[in-house]
Structure formats: C-alpha cells, structure tokens
Amino acid sequence: MDSHDRLQNIAQSLSIPNAQRHIFLCAGQTNDRCAPREHTNELWRHLKIRLKQLDLSTAPPQWKGNMDVDPDPVPPGSGTVLRSKVDCLRICEQGAIAVVYPDGTWYAGLDIDKLDLIIDQHLIGGEPVEELAFAVGDLT
C-alpha cells in the first residue's frame, strides 16, 4: 500500500470526510501561562469522553499509528466532530482557550460547564455560544 492510500484509509476511518466541526483545545501545553496544565488536561479528557459518549467522534482503528500494519479500509464512523489538542493557540491569557472551525469561533476561560455548553450548542446545534466567544475568524 502506498503512502497516499494509507492516509486516505486513515482519514476515512476517522470520519474526516464526514466532519462538520473541528474543535482545537489548548491542552497539555509546554508553557502554561494561560491556564494550569492540569486544568487543560482535565478539559481534554472530558472533551474526548463526552464526544465519544455522544457518538460525535470516531475512535481510531486498532492499527492507528502502527506503521508495520496496513490500514485496511474500514467503513467511516458516524462521527461529525474532529478534535485536536494543541500546545498553544497564541492567546496565552484567560485560558483555557478553544477554537471551533469552520466558523472560527474562539472561546476563553473554559471550564467543564462552559465546554459542555459549547459541545451542546455549537458542536451539536451549530450555533456558537456568543456569550462565551471573544473573537470570530471565519475561514470558509
């Protein structure tokens, strides 16, 4: 299997072609100026668990990351939300920080309750949580 086919199979298995939203959360950062690392890591764990419970994200297949195993094609999962943990979103103030694309809605000062509101209203409902947003940079 060539590298292009391998990546296509991985993307398909993660439901990337079906994604409607992508949330980037500053977590596990090397410099925790905006929020304590323990807090952002707790938010990241909560985000992963909640998205899986709601069947919004697709778990990676068993061969994930093992270059010795061919990533055989698998049917796409039902997930419509991608999630990425990022080291820094360059705001470095009033964290934890997250941004949701494609809308480009930026959120600050996150805790579990605020993150749940973003999941329910924005990631599921498609409506940004205006009272939590501090910037919008729509890239569509």
Strand order of the main beta sheet, please? 2-1-3-4-5
Q: Could you estimate the helical fraction of the residues in percent?
A: 25-40%
- Please, how many helices? 3
Give the number of DSSP strands: 5
Structural class by secondary-structure content = alpha+beta
CATH class: Alpha Beta
Question: What is the radius of gyration computed over CA atoms, rounded to a whole number of angstroms?
Answer: 16 Å
- Major sheet summary line: 5 strands, mixed
Could you name the CATH homologous superfamily? Answer: Glutaredoxin
Report the uncertain regions: none
Order of helices and strands: HEHEEEHE
Termini separation comes to 33 Å
The CATH topology is: Glutaredoxin
Supply the CATH architecture: 3-Layer(aba) Sandwich
Strand content: 15-25%
* Mean pLDDT over the residues: 88
* Shape estimate: globular
Number of domains: 1
Write up what this structure looks like:
It is built from three helices and five strands; from the N terminus they run H-E-H-E-E-E-H-E. With 140 residues, it is an alpha+beta fold. It has a single domain, classed as Glutaredoxin, CATH 3.40.30. A five-stranded mixed beta sheet has the order 2-1-3-4-5, with helices on one face. Helix 2 packs across helix 3 (112-124). The radius of gyration is 16 Å and the shape is globular. The N and C termini lie far apart (33 Å). The mean pLDDT is 88.
